[in-house]
Write a structure and sequence with these properties.
The complex is a heterodimer of chains A (about 280) and B (about 375). Chain A has about 280 residues and is an all-alpha fold. Chain A contains 13 helices and no strands. Chain B is built from eight helices and 20 strands. With about 375 residues, chain B is an alpha+beta fold. Chain B starts with 7 loop residues before the first strand and ends in a 5-residue tail after the last strand. The chains are: A mainly alpha (about 280), B alpha+beta (about 375).
């Protein structure tokens, strides 16, 4: 029997539960259903995962861009977090503000800003040409390079936050103790700091990788329609080509891929770190 | 581990942070194989001095000499000093054995030699069976011993201890005090300890240096400091003390007498103050006795018990006197001459040598 107290608590979360079911779980269930029924019932859509070259190409492109973006974001984020973690408390506040500001700027604005900077007559190409380093403008945008630049820019704050949290938990006395015991800077980093910040690094990796899998606006604008990632490809199938079955199949694959990633990483690292649950 | 004590000297050491002076012109000598404790309240500069010795803090002025050689500019990793940090600072991702092996790995010692030394160090602190555990699986006392083993395994010139026992409960602290002392005897190395716990300082050290507001107030053997404190601060910080203030009324060979109100108190002293000057005497609570009817002493004061408490081994009485305020006196409880009761009139007596003239360095 449920106690009266418990009923009260369940009633409190009921509205949120209904909302989630009606607008989140139900549509996803429907997506799953459509992927098995359109245009004809069966596994026809999923068969294309193994037979259709363009389906395979979009998956491979997406994975490649995601892995590159995640790697670069983690590298840049780690250096940044390291710098912030070792800064004075007053300096830390400014650093964190500087990291967070890009998060508050619309993704659309940021993508267009990158286009402006990276296009053939953009600031980067003009500067390189005027210094004589290159004679022809470089193709910096509307390809994978442009997408990676835009996505890394978007993802670095997400990489910094979990890593910084885990670095801040490292007792500075440990680093002093290692020094006192005779260790140089490199040894202290490799043997003490890096192993202790590894949970944060893994957490940041999961977060960034999952985020990048579903990127839509940034690749759409910086890829210029030539390099397709999964999200844009799904949009294309459903909105332009009206191939609902194929689009929902890919959407399902994406959801499954995210769940599988989470399942693998939850064995390696405490998931509370990724989603910021209370305590370590 | 062979006995290989080194000597350490501080010469005019000062450390300033902006306009704040953390350490002011401290000079100290630590002899070979000596156990020195820096004792003081928080903010007295004792930890700053230890951090200067360890090399983590660069002194604003002065020099640190090891066996006569200036090591002031050396970074901590090149000083070869073992250090036990407050809270131990064990590496949480390494086992006990890996923690102890860390300073040897850093020194690129061969595997066989390293393993033998780690085993010997863990034997020394009686933790041989715990090598494969992680620090968090050990009790506070065991962690403390791992920190000791890690600090001693590379046979450092000096062992520095930063409040090594402060995180432990009282009973365990007493146990580890004995162990630490025995360890010091056994390996004969030079130890420099920092603490704010006066009992720990008295029981562990060969010599204690008392600090306050960044200044070295007095140094000496524990008994010397306790029996002959030079200032009011030292008398008050080490143990408990009563203070008797009065005007110097008479000076004679080997002592003088002060008067306050109707009471006259004689004290033994080598230094003799001028007649008519103000003097302050420190008088330990256990050095007074309750006088029976007709019994006499060199100094006597009458008063009445204002309050009292039973402490197991003894009684502590607060006796209100007309000329010296409230005096604290302790008596062994098993043969106490009276049953304490509030308001009971008593007569206190003590010898001239029991009270010690001290400098009044505290307002």
């Amino acid at each position: 029997m449920m106690r009266r107290q418990d009923v009260g608590w369940w009633l409190l979360i009921l509205p949120a539960f209904l909302l989630m079911t009606a607008f989140y779980v139900a549509p996803i269930a429907q997506v799953l259903a459509i992927s098995f029924t359109e245009p004809t019932p069966g596994l026809g859509n999923y068969e294309r995962l193994f037979t259709n070259e363009s389906v395979q190409r979009v998956i491979i492109t997406t994975l490649r861009i995601c892995v590159i973006t995640t790697t670069i974001s983690l590298l840049l984020g780690y250096v940044l977090s390291y710098r912030i973690a070792l800064a004075s408390p007053a300096a830390q506040r400014w650093w964190i503000l500087a990291v967070l500001v890009p998060l508050w700027i619309s993704v659309l604005v940021r993508a267009f800003a990158w286009v402006t900077l990276l296009r053939r007559q953009g600031l980067v190409n003009e500067t390189l040409m005027s210094t004589g380093l290159i004679t022809e403008p470089l193709q910096l945008v509307w390809n994978e390079f442009g997408i990676v630049v835009g996505m890394v820019h978007y993802m670095v704050p997400y990489a910094v936050l979990p890593m910084l949290a885990s670095m801040r938990e490292i007792d500075p006395r440990l680093l002093a103790a290692a020094r006192g015991l005779g260790a140089g800077r490199i040894t202290i980093f490799a043997k003490i700091f890096l192993p202790l910040s590894l949970p944060g690094l893994l957490a940041a990796g999961v977060l960034v990788f999952i985020f990048t899998l579903g990127f839509y606006i940034t690749p759409a604008l910086l890829g210029g329609g030539k390099t397709l990632m999964v999200a844009e490809w799904i949009g294309l199938q459903i909105l332009d080509l009206l191939r609902w079955g194929l689009g929902t199949m890919m959407a399902t694959v994406l959801v499954v891929a995210i769940l599988v990633t989470l399942a693998i990483f939850s064995r390696l690292v405490d998931m509370k770190r990724v989603f910021g649950g209370g305590g370590a | 581990m062979s006995a290989a004590g080194h000597s350490l000297a501080l010469r005019g050491l000062s450390k300033r942070y902006g306009s704040f002076t953390a350490v002011a012109d401290v000079s100290l000598d630590v002899g070979q194989g000596e156990f020195l404790t820096l004792l003081g309240p928080s903010g007295s500069g004792k930890t700053t001095i230890l951090m200067c010795i360890a090399g983590f803090v660069a002194p604003s002025e002065g020099a640190i000499l090891l066996d006569g050689q200036d090591i002031t500019p050396l970074p901590p990793e090149r000083r070869d000093f073992g250090m036990v940090f407050q809270g131990y600072a064990l590496f949480p991702h390494m086992t006990v054995a890996e923690n102890v092996a860390f300073p040897l790995r850093v020194r690129k010692m061969g595997t066989a030699e390293r393993e033998a030394k780690v085993r010997a160090a863990l034997d020394l602190v009686q933790l041989s069976a715990f090598g494969e555990r992680l620090p968090r699986q050990l009790s506070g006392g065991q962690q403390q011993r791992v920190a000791l083993a890690r600090a001693l395994v590379f046979e450092p010139a000096l062992l520095l201890l930063d409040e090594p026992l402060s995180a432990l409960d009282k009973k365990l602290r007493a146990e580890l005090q004995d162990e630490l002392k025995a360890l010091h005897r056994r390996i004969g190395r030079t130890f420099v300890n920092v603490t704010h716990d006066q009992e720990e300082a008295l029981s562990l050290s060969d010599r204690v240096a008392i600090l306050n507001h960044g200044k070295l107030i007095q140094q000496g053997a524990p008994a010397e400091l306790y029996e002959a404190p030079r200032t009011r601060f030292v008398a008050d910080f080490l143990g408990k003390s009563n203070f008797l203030a009065g005007t110097v009324q008479e000076v004679f060979a080997g002592g003088f007498a002060i008067g306050a109100g109707a009471t006259r108190v004689v004290t033994a002293s080598a230094e003799l103050p001028p007649l008519g000057s103000q003097a302050l005497l420190s008088l330990r609570p256990e050095k007074m006795a309750l006088l029976a009817e007709g019994e006499t002493a060199e100094n006597t004061v009458t008063g009445s018990i204002a309050s009292w408490s039973y402490l197991g081994a003894g009684y502590a009485l607060n006796v209100a006197t007309p000329d010296f305020g409230t005096l604290r006196i302790t008596l062994p409880s098993w043969n106490a001459p009276i049953a304490p009761r509030e308001g009971l009139p008593v007569r206190l007596g003590w010898s001239a040598t029991a009270s010690v003239p001290v400098l009044d360095d505290e307002p």
